[in-house]
Amino acid sequence: MRILLIEDEGKAGDYLKRGLAEAGFTTDWVQDGLSGEQLAIEDEYDLVVLDVMLPQRDGWSLLRNLRQAGKETPVMFLTARDQIEDRVHGLELGADDYLVKPFAFAELLARVRNLLRRHPGRDSETMQVADLELDVRRRRAFRGGRRIDLTAKEFALLELLMRREGEILPRTLIASQVWDMNFDSDTNVVEVAMKRLRLKVDTGFDTRLIHTVRGMGYVLESQSDPSSAA
């Protein structure tokens, strides 16, 4: 599941991003309200965690603009502003939770999981491409009715490919989304994982779904492109 963290303080942001990653969440972290608002509106997240006092755009305005854009993504304020009127204001703007700094990470994690249970969103989906099915909530994959056993990273990789069906995904994007790391040209982790996933998904079937596009990246689609390689 994907979380957008909008926190301008470096140490706090790094601490939260690492903790959420260890808890199994893919977390994008930005340090200003304008960038955070753009990501929150244009991309798909399961939860937004944001501060109130942010450079370029404060959390109040960000949330107001998010709701006006029709985005119902759950939002948690994480801020040092502890006055009752601040909490009321945040909730009235459409926040789903409000946690005051300093905080215990265990409480933050419990609140995050509670919000995600209340707003299952994308995680309740079943996706399908051709005869390939992905049950996101139950973390199961099937092709032609046959169960495919996947590791956690393989599942995350397949989910990314299926959500972006027909779109060529560069290795840099895959590395950041699935492994939460910057792409290193000397690292073949993406290639190795993709090869293993392709073996599990495509072996034994006449139609290949996962394709390598030379010099560009990978794509999942039911029809092979002439520029694709095996």
Structure described in brief:
This protein has helices at about 10-20, 35-40, 60-70, 85-95, 105-120, 150-165, 170-180, 190-200, and strands at about 1-5, 25-30, 45-50, 75-80, 95-100, 125-130, 130-135, 140-145, 145-150, 210-215, 215-220, 230. The chain has about 230 residues and is α/β, with parallel strands linked by helices. About 30% of the residues are buried.
Q: What structural category arises from helix and sheet content?
A: alpha/beta
Ranges where pLDDT stays below 50 over 5 or more residues in a row are 224-230
CATH topology of the largest domain: Rossmann fold
Proportion of strand residues? 15-25%
* Distance between the amino and carboxyl termini: 30 Å
Q: What is the CATH superfamily label of the largest domain?
A: Response regulator
**What's the structural domain tally?**
2
Major sheet: order of its strands? 2-1-3-4-5
CATH class of the largest domain: Alpha Beta
Overall shape: elongated
Number of strands: 12
CATH architecture of the largest domain: 3-Layer(aba) Sandwich
Main sheet record? 5 strands, parallel
Number of helices: 8
Chain-averaged pLDDT: 87
Order of helices and strands: EHEHEHEHEHEEEEHHHEEE
Rg computed from alpha carbons, rounded to a whole number of angstroms: 19 Å
Q: Which oligomeric form is depicted?
A: single chain
* Helix coverage percent: 25-40%
Protein name: Two-component system copper resistance phosphate regulon response regulator CusR
DNA-binding region: 124-222
Domain OmpR/PhoB-type: 124-222
Organism: Tahibacter aquaticus
